[in-house]
Structures are given as structure tokens and as C-alpha cells.
């Protein structure tokens, strides 16, 4: 059996990363063009579109740092992206769930890297709140990363994996 047959070449799932990147960058461009910075636009109860710029990481972690965090997060995301591609390439035929999780995280990471390189910050615009509690604004890339990470966590609790020699 060839290596490609054993692994099932999960690289074919990279189209989903490209879709995440296109949707993410497209919605960020629309938000930047149509919204005024910091001015919430109510969409429905508990949800606004609010254009914000995040120079930090998740939940604005390190946003107040002196600027070094931009290059740190770019480098970190690129290193993680390379690791994710190698991990994706090594998956077995029956590990489709893991492949989807990996490419969602990869697409989200690269969408946010683009923002950091081009703008120096990540464009966020999805803003949920409850009474006076406001969840930090986020974007499509963040959503893909969160869904991918959630899938990986769920995978830990799923049924045991098939042995390498068994078919899907």
C-alpha cells in the first residue's frame, strides 16, 4: 500500500481553508467599508455589528503591548500553520473529522495573519452582548478557529480510532 493510500491524502481538504480565508477577508472588507469604527449597528437583540481593530490576540490579549506582539503573533501563526499542514498530511484515511478541524484552524489563522501583516491589527466586527456584558468582538477567522478547536476537543471523547489496517 502506498503512503498516499495509507494516509488518504487529507490535503484535499485545503479547499476549506481557502473558503474560510475568502469569507473572512471578504466580510472584513465589507465591515471596514460599511461600518464606522466603534459605532455599533444593532442587527437583532443581543447582536450588533461593531467595527473594531484588535492588535492583540484572543480577547485582546497583549493589545496594549508596545507593538512587538504584531510580529510575535504573525510568526506564531505561520509556524502553527506549517505544523498544521504537516499534521494534515500525516492523517490516516479514517481521520476526516480531524482533517476538517485542522483546515478550519489553518484558514482562520491565515485570515488573521493577513490582517496583521497588511493592517497591523485584526479586523473584528461580530459583537454579541447580554445586558451590560459585552463578549469581545470577533470575526469569521476566529469562528473557524473556535469551531476547529472544538472539533478537536470533541474528537478526544469520540469512539476509539480504527486500527491502521482497517478500511473506513
Automatic annotation (TrEMBL):
UniProt KW keywords: Aspartyl protease, Cell membrane, Hydrolase, Membrane, Protease, Transmembrane, Transmembrane helix
Pfam family, one: Peptidase_A8
Pathway named in the protein's UniProt entry: Protein modification; lipoprotein biosynthesis (signal peptide cleavage)
Active site: 124, 142
Broad class of the protein's primary localization: membrane
Protein's recorded name: Lipoprotein signal peptidase
Subcellular location(s) of the protein: Cell membrane
Function: This protein specifically catalyzes the removal of signal peptides from prolipoproteins.
Amino acid at each position: 500500500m502506498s503512503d498516499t493510500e495509507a494516509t488518504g491524502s487529507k490535503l484535499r481538504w485545503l479547499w476549506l481553508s481557502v473558503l474560510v480565508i475568502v469569507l473572512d477577508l471578504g466580510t472584513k472588507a465589507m465591515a471596514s467599508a460599511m461600518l464606522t469604527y466603534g459605532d455599533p449597528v444593532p442587527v437583532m437583540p443581543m447582536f450588533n455589528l461593531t467595527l473594531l481593530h484588535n492588535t492583540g490576540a484572543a480577547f485582546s490579549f497583549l493589545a496594549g503591548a508596545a507593538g512587538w506582539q504584531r510580529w510575535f503573533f504573525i510568526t506564531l501563526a505561520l509556524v502553527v500553520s506549517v505544523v498544521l499542514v504537516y499534521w494534515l498530511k500525516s492523517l490516516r484515511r479514517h481521520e476526516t473529522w480531524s482533517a476538517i478541524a485542522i483546515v478550519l484552524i489553518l484558514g482562520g489563522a491565515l485570515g488573521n495573519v493577513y490582517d496583521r501583516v497588511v493592517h497591523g491589527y485584526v479586523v473584528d466586527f461580530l459583537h454579541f452582548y447580554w445586558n451590560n456584558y459585552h463578549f469581545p468582538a470577533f470575526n469569521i477567522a476566529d469562528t473557524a478557529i473556535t469551531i476547529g478547536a472544538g472539533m478537536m476537543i470533541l474528537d478526544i471523547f469520540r469512539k476509539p480510532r480504527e486500527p491502521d489496517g482497517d478500511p473506513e
